[in-house]
Design a protein that fits this description.
Number of strands: 6
Structural class: alpha+beta
Shape: elongated
Number of helices: 3
Number of domains: 2
Distance between the termini: 89 Å
Length: about 150
């Protein structure tokens, strides 16, 4: 008795329906057309924060201490805050540390916290180009960095 191999589906059977492929192609081409139009006409960027004068800034060193802890040091190494549950400051420290790991930059270099005349508050890493708009995460999270700015 000869065993037959199970029947294979036809090789010419479509795995993705043709209308769906055409719709995906239309999406790609329309996205390319919109971006090309924007670049060729010199359209201003949308969603980019407006430039403003710096009214205050402070450089600090954020040192991670596990999943939730963070230690905040002055640039001279003086302890400013030891936060076993650092909350949002820990989130920013983790983001900065990840950017520095990717760029091969020392994670113990200072991070600048900058307040602008238009009310923006930003964490800026001059060594990697990474930054975070602190007001975008809610008023409670912004307040954590406002306290850090005023803490001596």
């Amino acid at each position: 008795m000869v065993m037959q191999a199970p029947a294979r589906p036809s090789d010419d059977k479509e795995l993705i329906p043709k209308p769906l492929l055409l719709a995906m192609l239309a999406l790609v081409l329309s996205s390319l057309a919109v971006v090309s139009f924007s670049v060729l006409t010199g359209r201003d960027h949308v969603g980019v924060p407006k430039t403003a004068a710096i009214v205050a800034e402070r450089s600090v060193i954020l040192q991670g201490g596990g999943a939730q802890a963070v230690t905040v040091l002055a640039t001279d190494g003086t302890l400013l805050m030891d936060l076993p549950h650092g909350g949002f400051i820990t989130v920013i420290q983790n983001g900065m540390e990840r950017a520095r790991l990717t760029a091969g930059v020392d994670k113990m270099l200072p991070l600048r916290i900058v307040e602008y005349a238009n009310g923006r508050l930003t964490a800026v890493d001059d060594y990697t180009g990474w930054s975070a708009e602190l007001g975008a995460f809610g008023s409670d999270n912004r307040a954590a960095f406002e306290r850090l700015m005023s803490h001596q």
